[in-house]
């Protein structure tokens, strides 16, 4: 019988990140798991959601401000459209400084 990977679904990864956070190891874990480009993409994604939820700028303005393609903004917008108002409000609260 072939060996099976230890981690097979997203919830296991979320649990790993949660456990690493509780033990103060989340920075090390995420830095090791994500390449520099992936970390930059995650920063952009967070900023995309923040700007879309604020609603002050057009998608084109967000694209120019963040230096990402309009398609990247559209993907973020489409992801937000699939969420409930409550989920959007929770995300907006998380992303406030």
UniProtKB/TrEMBL annotation:
Residues 59-82 bind DNA. It comes from the Bacteria. GO terms for biological process: negative regulation of DNA-templated transcription. It is found in: Cytoplasm. Pfam families: Trp_repressor (PF01371). Keywords: Cytoplasm, DNA-binding, Repressor, Transcription, Transcription regulation. GO terms for cellular component: cytoplasm. Homodimer. This is Trp operon repressor homolog. It comes from Vibrio sinaloensis DSM 21326. The gene is trpR.
